[in-house]
Design a protein that fits this description.
By secondary structure, the chain is mainly alpha-helical. The protein has 9 helices and no strands.
């Protein structure tokens, strides 16, 4: 069924089934099938594949950043204080569709990272935070796009998320270059801080948007965006405390 908001929805997203089947298959593989297949096998050496993947993600996210910045700050298609989806006949509607589709597709590309963990037998890295983050993002972005249309209030979240992902995949790539390079990367924990900062900014923007009585942003969309941001802020905050504060205290003892 085509989106009631925008009839130009990509065919693969005109029905919820491709998204639901992809996410269910992803969870089934990383939680059950993958670990069983790898139980009596040696981990795969995927260093070259992961390098290519990280480079691809860096380039893809930079490309998205260019389009988001152009849309928001050059075309100035939105009122930044009240970002509502553009009407179907708006002159910049195609640009809105384009950057939104780029972002939605990329949330599915992100799932590949977990598959690498399974094939390399890095099961400890498949945490509740990791799974929640990777599985919830494509689902929420898909629902926003199909139920409320392209772009809108979630654009701010997406822009900040892209910036963090550029930093994150740059770190991942540099850490695969050599052991010496990996040891010199002192800024790993600041990526987690950047994650929490982005969620804090999104919460503030959502609060500001909802406080405006004349802003016609769909309330349900804004609430879901806020709840997701708050949930991820708490989860990343918990990870930061355990990984960097408590672990540092244990090393000093």
């Amino acid at each position: 069924m085509l989106s009631p908001v925008d009839p130009a929805t990509l065919s693969i997203f005109s029905s919820p089934w491709p998204t639901l089947i992809t996410l269910l298959s992803y969870l089934l593989f990383v939680l059950k099938v993958g670990p069983r297949l790898m139980k009596n096998r040696e981990p795969f050496d995927l260093r070259r594949v992961i390098k290519v993947y990280n480079i691809f993600q860096i380039i893809y996210n930079i490309w998205m950043l260019v389009h988001f910045v152009n849309f928001l700050f050059v075309l100035k298609a939105y009122d930044l204080g009240c970002m509502t989806t553009l009407p179907l006949d708006h002159e910049h509607k195609d640009a809105e569709r384009y950057y939104s589709n780029l972002y939605l597709i990329n949330k599915f590309v992100d799932l590949v990272e977990t598959i690498f963990f399974v094939l390399r037998k890095k099961d400890r890295q498949i945490s509740v935070l990791h799974l929640f983050h990777h599985a919830s993002m494509p689902l929420v972005v898909f629902l926003f796009t199909t139920l409320h249309g392209y772009g809108g209030v979630a654009t701010a979240y997406a822009l900040l998320n892209i910036i963090v992902h550029i930093l994150m995949y740059t770190y991942y790539y540099l850490s695969t270059v050599s052991k010496a390079a990996q040891q010199s990367l002192w800024w790993k924990k600041y990526i987690t801080i950047a994650q929490m900062v982005q969620f804090g900014i999104v919460l503030a923007l959502n609060t500001y948007t909802l406080s405006q009585p004349n802003c016609k942003v769909p309330r349900f969309q804004a609430y879901i965006c806020g709840v997701l941001s708050l949930s991820l802020f708490v989860l990343f905050g918990n990870f930061y405390v355990r990984a960097y504060i408590l672990s540092d205290r244990k090393r000093r003892q």
